[in-house]
Write a structure and sequence with these properties.
By secondary structure, this protein is of the alpha+beta class.
Length: 1719
């Protein structure tokens, strides 16, 4: 396409920027050919114009890649390959996705994050181990894995070249690379080489690293570490070569820089007693370290301690370390030696012999002080055959002193490197192949560049030339492999620049020539350079303003070098006289440092090769020409030779490149400086790789990938594979008219740069047109549906409206008629109400008038009657009133006194009522008082009723008397004679009336007093009732609080019990896991021992080497079964090694072991004792017999004996300790559970008793207490009865044994006094069972070996399929029972021990047979259960005569350990069979057809890795169906062997964890798998796996729960990721994933096309903020632990029926066990 077609409106481009280097912009107008400028709009909205040069190459701005390619793993996968695209992709990956690694073709670009990232753990190593480089995200481990795989497969040496400027992270990358090699390759030595190499890092950093302006820990030398591997891929040795140590830093540092770290470490640790003799002070007191002393965040004293520990690990003795520190301290003191100027114009100089610094320097190096003081200021010259001593000036003497310091430090550095190489050297065999790790300085340019920068840039020129050649070679091989015609790609060859430096009469030759001149100077050398190369070479130029500098145009940049100091640094001259003094030192190390350099004809030791220039010795003595040539070698010459050797090494290996980038100079985490990044990208060759790739065909697609992506632009839809290639060829002809823009290979299509973007544009146009058509049709359909809905709605509204109007008219008519009816009724009601009101008023007035007249009449008659009565009662009332007043006063006084007494008693009782004990008494007293008060109230009421009756009687009597008197008065009124009598009667009547009035008053007062008393009593009763209610409420409150307290106590107790139980269970699980891990490690050590033994036998067989007696060692092999009598002949011995002592005591027949370990002294003693017939044996025999091993063979290899014996015994001791500790913890747990249960029962009992007692009277509570005492006594009696029963069982067993001994011929009198009864003695074994057991198998002693061979070791896997499950276990157990029935206990034990040993051997022989492992796991578990079932004291059998007579707990322990080992081997075999299938089946297979069709990301095509082409084209990839078939095969095998279902569930729980961890780890490390369609595919695959597990009832063991992290990860890929509610939903649902895993998946989420939305950074930050609010639990890493092993438990077997009915046992003829006899 033309430029006008590409540069259209809204096209995105890159434009230069002085600050950001490149900024994005967008075209605001179309570009036409011939336009002079482009109208652009920047991202901030600014309008700019971009000038375009006229002509065929207008210089248009680079185009931007589509957004879908942002954050691509491989830079070469970008559609547009240029500098801004590379810079932008690195910035996006580094800042937005926190990805510090990116591929650039064959280069791994690593950006220093300046903080620790959790991406280097063991789980990450496991995830990358064995994976194809093209399948995983970029990582340093991926490069290391690629190198390791190529070395192992092609048996070719590899090199990893790590370069970058100071502070870019080269050393850290080298450390991680070596850690990966050690993890995947292992180490065959006792101490791994990887550990030794890592321990060498603190040493090399101390003596070779310093603080610079760019890095606080800058390596001032280069190193190349060769890691040697054996034939099996294990690390057997290493070697280190160093290059160009910056010795000038010892005597001079610029501002804000430091000397080497070791000097500051010594000064910071000067207070240590062992360093006090060095005479050190603060670092600021020395001239060589007086600059920038302290580095923030660095502890020099702690660093020195770490350095000393590293020396110790590498075998450097403390005394030798002190010698090194003395030399380093002497260098510091030498810098403080004061040289005084004397003579005219400073021609002479001198040193005071009493100078303190000189005294310390000579004392530390053990040299003569006077001679050193003399020769520091003088030199010896040879003139005309005579030796003359010439004094030196002050300047020359200072330079000679500094030269001596640099020379001493250089020799010390060389010696240290040689010593480290000696510790890392392969000891036994030469490495079969090696992987070299080159940690070398990158291209450097400073404001002032000197000799060091020149050498560094020269080395980078050579490496860049090698890199360009390798990249070009890989491109050529790729084109040839795909049979594509190719033309030579032009690239910038830097050979002219290299010729300028190292060629004939080049810079280095002229420098060496000038150094050989007597009066050579930097100025004359600069003039020679100008004369020779100026205007002759395009890579050389002269600065305008300087005559002592020159410019070299390197591949990365133009660098100006200052000539000042070049000659001195190249000569590195030191005078011979001070060196001779040092050679004569009394210190052996000092003399050794300087004796080696005089022997120039002695080649260096193997592995001690170093390129550190030692300097030249300026001597005037006559000597051989060889020595003079050796001394005349310059630093440049030596560096050129070492560099040439390095290039030869690299050219002989397959290189892998790692380019480290420093993102900023502020050392801030995740801060990206584009200027610095671009400068380093140009310098390290990344952009050159991009340019070479862009010059050819950088974009490469396989035919299936291309068809799936661009099938929308093709005619055919579902063709075959060959038809797909034809379709791709036909489609490209119409899509890209220019055939030069693409090439068809055998398996791939190659595109030039930009063509994929063009295809994407065409594809987007086609999809956009299709979308428009779909939208048109959908919108038409939607409009038609909307019109139909609107029409139907209108008709419906019309119908409803007309009906509503009709209903409203009918309602109006009904309302009108109802109103008329209401008016008529209302008017009628109003008139009737008025009539009724008037009538009612008239009737009422009449009634009231008549009533008033009647009442007036009645009142008059009543008044008259009352007057008569009052006169009659007044007198009686007056007399009674006085009496009643006196009685009332007396009663009131009594009441007051009684009330006072009652209040006192009430107060006393209230005080007593506060205690629970008096509660019932208080209630009882209150009830009594209430009853008394009620009785008094009843008495008062009775008295009141009596008084009322008496009053009524008196009233009746008075009425009667009054009536009589009135009658008499009326009769006498008419007679004259009765006047006097009438008067008397009238008087009497008035007296009676007065008395009547008095009685009335008295009655009234009595009634008032009674009423007052009743009211007082009522109030008292009410107050007492209130008090009673308060007491009742208080009682209820107390009961409630008591119940709450009891419930709280119960809850606390239950919580404590649950907490203690869970803690004990978790500790038990952890302990079980550690123990099983220890067994796994023990098995691994046994296998390593077997490998070492085979290797040693192989070397002896083919090399014919016969070792001397001093190098002999033990060869430990599996011995045949132990005879029954062998355990009686063990001797009591002790074995003591130089490092520790071990003592294990074994007592027969129970074989009780006593282990004593003293950690500080590391003393362990192993002693084997037996109570009968001790016979002396060798210490090795006793030790091996004590740990359960057997010695067979002669002494071999002293180091093998020490290594393996120590590891084996240590493992056995740890096992015994672990078992004892586990038993102790089990017993403690049971005791705690028992105590908790007892306490809970006691609390429940006391609570119930208290609650019940409070509701009962005291008599009942006392009775209950007696009942409780009786119940407690009954429980104690039951316990005593159980103890009696157990003792009776022991007594019966002893009686049975005594009876068997009597039957054996001991007689009725029993054994002789003083003798012991020993089972399994030398007496003739005889049966000792009281009953005869049928169906047991008898095996003669001489046939036991045949039994073991035919039943175990010689059993073929094909035969096991035909056997009944558990048959071997039943046969062995019946043989053991027969031996036990005959009284041969030791023989039964030996038979079981021999079976265990044979099973181990059979499993080692068939280590990859899953079916055989399941077979022996089933039989081992069954045999262990049979021993438990028939063990005395633990059996559930009711017939004690059928039990074993001995305790087989030790045998069950051995079988349990063997079961765990078999289970672990079973899991390993299953993992090895499933591991290659997991990722292809769970992640890569498309179980849902067509789901990911057309969804392949642009840049996700595979890189050309070493694993490509290993599989044939016809190999069927693994799918989910194949994985399920493999799982079904494993499950069928386990089910066929009749394993317990719980064991099967545990095994598949482990397998499910493996599936989940492997799949999730790969998902977290593969960006191409994090998409919506892949999430749906993974969820579907997991659902199939769930259905498979549930269909076989395996979900109960936690197998389905183990899949939860994978399920949540797949859901996370499918859910919406936009709003805050989505973030909260993710935080709530993804509980099985760690926050780092969630953030990683969201960061890796990649849309498969441009129509999907990316996950924004704001959304990721919001999710991360919500995740940070989670409670802090156990820290979880990014990746799951694939190696995690769940502890296994073995429940009892299901049906040991054959041992209970042994006569039903049928032995097939295929086992060849005819020699067994059934009895």
């Amino acid at each position: 396409m033309s430029a006008a077609d590409l540069y259209t409106k809204l096209t995105r481009v890159w434009v230069p920027d002085p600050e950001q280097v490149w900024v994005p912009a967008q075209l605001s107008h179309d570009y036409r050919d011939g336009d002079g400028c482009l109208h652009l709009q920047l991202s901030d909205g600014t309008e700019v114009q971009y000038t375009v040069a006229p002509g065929p190459s207008p210089g248009l701005p680079p185009l931007r890649n589509p957004d879908i390619l942002e954050g691509e793993n491989d830079l070469t996968a970008l559609s547009y390959l240029h500098e801004p695209a590379v810079l932008h992709n690195l910035r996006v990956r580094f800042l937005d996705y926190s990805s510090i690694y990116t591929y650039c073709g064959i280069i791994l670009v690593a950006i220093n994050p300046y903080e620790q990232l959790p991406i280097y753990g063991e789980d990450v190593i496991d995830a990358y181990s064995g994976q194809n480089m093209a399948d995983m995200d970029p990582h340093i481990f991926s490069v290391a894995e690629e190198a390791y795989r190529q070395m192992a497969r092609e048996e070719q040496n590899q090199s990893i070249i790590i370069s970058g400027e100071s502070g870019a992270g080269k050393t850290v990358s080298a450390k991680f690379t070596m850690r990966y090699f050690a993890a995947v390759g292992g180490s065959a030595r006792e101490t791994s080489v990887e550990e030794r190499v890592l321990e060498s890092n603190p040493i090399m950093e101390a003596i070779g690293n310093a603080k610079t302006t760019r890095n606080d820990n800058s390596s001032r030398f280069g190193k190349y570490i060769e890691i040697g591997f054996g034939r099996k891929g294990d690390i057997i040795g290493a070697n280190m070569r160093t290059y160009l140590l910056e010795k000038s830093r010892v005597v001079f540092q610029t501002t804000e820089e430091r000397n080497y770290h070791i000097f500051y470490q010594l000064c910071a640790s000067r207070h240590l007693p062992e360093l006090s003799a060095l005479g050190l002070g603060g670092a600021e007191e020395f001239q060589y370290t007086s600059g920038n002393v302290q580095i923030p965040g660095t502890d020099d004293a702690a660093d020195l301690e770490r350095t000393r520990n590293s020396f110790s690990v590498l075998g450097v003795r403390p005394g030798l370390q002190m010698e090194l520190f003395r030399i380093l301290a002497a260098i510091l003191h030498l810098g403080n030696v004061k040289i005084q100027s004397s003579g005219r114009d400073g021609e002479r100089s001198s040193v005071n012999a009493e100078d303190r610094s000189l005294h310390l320097f000579c004392q530390l190096l053990a040299v003569e002080r006077s001679q050193m003081a003399h020769w520091l200021c003088h030199r010896r010259l040879a003139v005309a055959g005579e030796m003359l001593v010439k004094p030196m000036g002050w300047q020359q003497a200072c330079e000679a002193r500094d030269a001596l310091s640099k020379h001493v430090y250089g020799q010390m550095f060389t010696w240290t490197v040689g010593r480290l190489n000696g510790a890392l050297r392969a000891q036994r065999q030469q490495p079969h192949s090696f992987i070299g790790v080159l940690d070398i300085y990158g291209f450097e340019t400073f404001e002032k560049n000197s000799f060091e920068q020149f050498c560094i840039n020269y080395a980078n020129e050579k490496l860049q030339q090698q890199f360009n050649g390798h990249v070009f070679q890989l491109e050529q091989e790729e084109y040839l492999r795909e049979e594509i015609p190719w033309t030579r790609i032009e690239f910038s060859d830097n050979q002219p620049c290299i010729e300028l430096i190292e060629g004939k009469l080049g810079v280095l030759d002229l420098l060496d020539e000038e150094c050989r001149m007597p009066r050579g100077s930097d100025e004359s050398w600069a003039q020679k350079l100008y004369m020779r190369h100026q205007n002759q070479s395009p890579h050389f130029s002269k600065p305008r303003l300087s005559n002592t500098a020159f410019i070299i145009v390197h591949f990365a940049d133009r660098v100006q070098y200052e000539c000042d100091g070049f000659l001195d640094k190249n000569r590195d001259t030191v005078f011979e006289e001070p060196i001779n003094i040092l050679k004569a030192s009394k210190s052996e190390l000092v003399a050794e440092l300087f004796q080696d350099e005089s022997r120039g004809d002695v080649p260096p030791l193997s592995g001690v090769t170093t390129a550190v220039p030692n300097g030249s010795l300026r001597s005037s003595r006559k000597g051989g020409s060889t020595a003079r040539r050796e001394h005349k070698q310059t630093v440049g010459f030596q560096f050129r030779q070492s560099l040439q050797l390095l290039m030869e090494t690299l050219n002989s290996t397959t290189p892998h490149y790692v380019r480290c980038i420093k993102p900023n100079d502020l050392k801030q985490p995740f801060l990206f400086d584009p200027k610095r990044a671009v400068q380093q990208l140009r310098a390290c060759g990344v952009l050159e790789t991009i340019r070479i790739s862009a010059a050819g065909y950088p974009s490469r697609w396989t035919y299936p990938e291309f068809f799936n992506r661009y099938r929308v632009m093709m005619q055919c839809r579902d063709p075959g594979l060959e038809d797909r290639q034809a379709a791709c060829r036909a489609a490209l002809g119409s899509l890209i008219p220019d055939p030069d823009q693409y090439r068809f290979g055998k398996t791939k299509i190659f595109f030039r740069a930009g063509q994929v973007a063009l295809l994407e544009k065409l594809r987007a146009s086609r999809l956009r047109a299709a979308c428009v058509e779909v939208q048109r049709r959908v919108r038409g359909w939607l409009e038609r549906k909307r019109y139909q809905h609107a029409r139907q709605a209108a008709l419906t509204l019309q119908n409803y409206t007309r009906g509503w109007l009709a209903r409203r008219l009918a309602q109006c008519l009904r309302y009108t008629r109802a109103a008329l009816v209401l008016q008529k009724s209302y008017r009628m009601v109003q008139v009737r109400r008025l009539y009724l009101l008037i009538r009612s008023a008239a009737v009422t007035i009449q009634a009231f008038a008549r009533g008033a007249i009647a009442r007036c009449l009645y009142r008059q008659l009543r008044a008259e009657r009352k007057a008569v009565l009052l006169q009659a009662r007044v007198r009686g009332w007056s007399a009674r009133r006085a009496f009643l007043h006196v009685r009332a006063a007396v009663l009131y006084l009594q009441c007051c006194y009684r009330r006072m007494q009652a209040r006192r008693e009430l107060k006393q009782r209230r005080m007593e009522a506060r205690s629970v004990e008096h509660y019932r008494q208080l209630n009882k007293g209150m009830e009594v008082k209430l009853m008394q008060l009620q009785c008094r109230a009843d008495e008062q009421s009775r008295e009141s009723s009596l008084l009322k009756e008496r009053l009524s009687q008196e009233r009746a009597a008075h009425c009667t008397e009054l009536a009589r008197l009135q009658g008499e008065l009326s009769r006498l009124a008419g007679s004259a004679q009765g006047e006097a009598r009438s008067t008397a009667l009238a008087q009497e009547l008035s007296a009676l009336r007065g008395e009547r009035e008095r009685e009335r008053e008295e009655r009234r007062s009595a009634e008032e007093r009674a009423a007052q008393e009743i009211s007082r009593l009522t109030q008292a009763v009410e107050s007492l009732q209130r008090e009673k209610a308060a007491l009742i409420q208080e009682r209820e409150t107390l009961n409630t609080s008591l119940q709450e307290h009891e419930r709280a106590c119960e809850e606390r107790v239950s919580q404590q019990v649950a907490l203690v139980t869970s803690g004990l269970r978790s500790e038990l699980e952890e302990e079980r896991g550690r123990y099983q891990g220890l067994l796994k490690e023990f098995s691994r050590l046994e296998q390593r021992y077997e490998n070492l033994k085979e290797e040693m036998n192989f070397s002896e067989r083919f090399l014919g080497h016969r070792r001397s007696a001093s190098s002999q060692s033990l060869i430990l092999e599996s011995s045949p079964p132990i005879p029954a009598w062998s355990s009686e002949r063990e001797a009591r011995t002790s074995v003591t090694s130089p490092e520790w002592e071990r003592r294990v005591t074994v007592t027969s027949p129970e074989w009780e072991r006593r282990v004593t370990v003293t950690s500080p002294e590391r003393e362990r003693r192993v002693t084997v004792t037996s109570p009968s017939s001790p016979i002396a044996t060798s210490p090795q025999d006793s030790l091996l017999m004590a740990v359960g091993l057997f010695k067979d063979g002669r002494m071999r290899e002293e180091d093998l004996r020490h290594a393996y014996d120590a590891v084996r015994v240590a493992n056995k001791l740890l096992e015994s300790q672990l078992v004892s500790q586990r038993q102790q913890w089990d017993s403690e747990m049971q005791a705690l559970q028992l105590q908790v249960g007892v306490q809970r029962e006691e609390v429940d009992r006391l609570t119930q008793a208290l609650a019940h007692t409070l509701t009962l009277p005291p008599e009942t509570g006392l009775q209950l207490g007696l009942q409780e005492q009786l119940a407690r006594l009954a429980a104690d009696n039951l316990e005593l009865m159980e103890q009696v029963e157990s003792q009776e069982q022991v007594s019966r067993r002893l009686r049975r044994e005594l009876y068997s001994l009597k039957q054996a011929g001991w007689g009725s009198a029993g054994p002789a006094p003083g003798t012991e009864v020993l089972s399994g003695g030398n007496a003739t074994p005889t049966p000792h069972k009281e009953v005869t057991l049928q169906g047991l198998l008898e095996c003669r002693r001489e046939d036991e070996a045949r039994l073991i061979k035919n039943l175990i070791t010689g059993l073929c896997p094909e035969v096991t399929r035909t056997l009944t499950p558990g048959l071997p276990a039943h046969i062995l157990f019946l043989c053991m029972r027969q031996a036990d029935w005959r009284g041969e206990e030791q023989r039964a034990r030996a038979l079981c021990t021999a079976a265990v040993t044979a099973i181990k051997g059979a499993l080692k022989k068939h280590s990859a047979d899953f079916e055989l492992a399941a077979f022996w796991l089933s039989n081992t578990c069954l045999l262990m259960h049979l021993l438990r079932e028939f063990s005395p004291g633990e059996s559930s059998q009711t017939d004690e005569q059928t039990l074993l007579t001995f305790d087989p707990s030790d045998l069950r322990k051995a079988l349990s350990d063997l079961s765990i080992q078999i289970y672990q081997q079973l899991i390993r075999i299953a993992e090895s069979r499933l591991q290659p299938m997991i990722v292809p089946a769970m992640l890569e297979s498309e179980t849902i057809p067509g789901l990911s069709s057309g969804g392949k990301s642009l840049g996700s095509h595979k890189r050309a890795a070493s694993g490509a082409g290993e599989k044939g084209e016809g190999v069927q990839p693994h799918s989910m169906d194949s994985l399920l078939r493999e799982l079904s095969s494993l499950h069928l095998t386990l089910s066929h062997q009749a394993l317990h279902p719980e064991v099967c569930r545990q095994a598949f729980r482990q397998i499910s964890h493996l599936l989940t961890a492997t799949t999730l780890n790969n998902l977290l490390l593969r960006k191409d798998m994090c998409s919506w369609s892949k999430g749906l595919q993974i969820r579907y695959n997991v659902s199939q796996l769930e259905d498979w597990l549930r269909g076989r009832s395996l979900q109960l063991g936690g197998a389905v729960d183990s899949l939860e992290p994978l399920i949540q990860a797949s859901q996370l890929l499918q859910v919406s990721k936009r709003s805050e509610s989505d973030a909260r939903a993710i935080e709530e649902t993804c509980t099985a994933l760690s926050p780092s895993q969630i953030v990683k998946i969201l960061s890796l989420y990649t849309p498969l096309n441009e129509f999907e939305e990316r996950v924004t950074l704001n959304f990721i930050r919001s999710v991360q903020a919500l995740l940070n609010e989670r409670p802090r639990g156990k820290a979880r890493q990014l990746l799951m632990d694939v190696r995690h092993v769940f502890p296994v438990t073995f429940p009892p077997s299901l049906s040991p029926s054959l041992s209970q009915q042994p006569e039903q046992l049928q032995i097939p003829d295929s086992l060849n066990l005819a020699f067994l006899r059934q009895v």
